[in-house]
Amino acid sequence: MTPNELWLTYHQASRYNKPVTAQLVELEFQNQKLNDLEDVLEHLFRQGFIEVQHRPLSYWENHDGQRLNAGRAVEELLKEGAGACPQSALRLVIADCPPHVWFSYVYTHKTVGPAVTQRVKLAEAKLGITAHLTNHIFHSGYLPARYRTVVTWQGPCGRKIEEHERLEDLLTAGEGHCETSPLRLIIDATCTHTRTCHSVCH
After folding, report:
1. Burial grade of 139 (CB within 10 A; 0-12, 13-18, 19 or more)
2. Alpha-carbon gap, residue 70 to 84, rounded angstroms
3. Using one digit for the tens of pLDDT, what is the confidence trace for 134-181?
4. pTM of this structure
5. Separation CA 139–CA 145 (nearest Å)
6. End-to-end CA distance of the chain
7. What span, in angstroms and rounded, lies between the C-alpha atoms of 40 and 126?
8. 170, burial (CB in 10 Å: exposed 0-12, middle 13-18, buried 19+)
9. Backbone torsion region of residue 133, taken as left when φ is above 0, otherwise alpha when ψ lies between -120 and 50, otherwise beta
10. I want to staple 104 with a disulfide (CB 3.0 to 4.6 A). Which of 5, 93, 117, 145 is the partner?
């Protein structure tokens, strides 16, 4: 590689379960030199390598995941070894969907105490639809198995969420994307048909 070339890899949030794509960028293009990371980013968008609507969601990191200022000179980075080879390629992060989902536990039989809110990282748990999130909660032991038949999902405003709905669609709509707007896991634990509650409820 010559000093006029820069290695980068694309890290798109919506493709967290797909292989990372690498690219070698020429820093002199049509008699114009790409001096800093902002120049490189603008070049990638002008060439159509990245969809234009992702422009506000894109930022740079070094190979170790440390955030880089868009004004950093490319020549300076290359002298430090960053982006000089595939092993030290800069990371172009495209946060086109949130990396995690927030939800709260809502017990219908509890009249006091705040609802507990939890965050789950989509990539680590390999979540695609709401049913995957439900299964993850029970597989992880966050709720006892006896509650499996009495849980349903709601959006922050009370809309019923089906198990087949894609988490990406919910997050894009603003449901579950932050701690103050979590999905609601409704737990109707008034009677879970156990031997103990049967004697009380019947």
Report:
1. exposed
2. 18
3. 999 999 999 999 999 999 999 999 999 999 999 988 987 889 988 999
4. 0.57
5. 9
6. 77
7. 32
8. buried
9. alpha
10. 117
Distance of alpha carbon 109 from alpha carbon 173, whole angstroms: 29
Cα(93)–Cα(72) distance, integer angstroms: 16
Answer yes or no: are the C-beta atoms of 95 and 172 closer than 8 Å. no
Stated as kind and residue range, the H or E segment containing 146 is none
Cα gap 153→158, rounded to integer Å: 9
At 68, the pLDDT band (50, 70, 90 cuts) reads very high
CA separation, residue 67 to residues 59, 91, 196 (Å): 8, 9, 55
Please state, in angstroms and rounded to a whole number, the distance separating the CA atoms of residues 28 and 75.
Answer: 12
Phi-psi domain of 60 (left: phi exceeds 0; alpha: psi -120 through 50; beta: other): beta
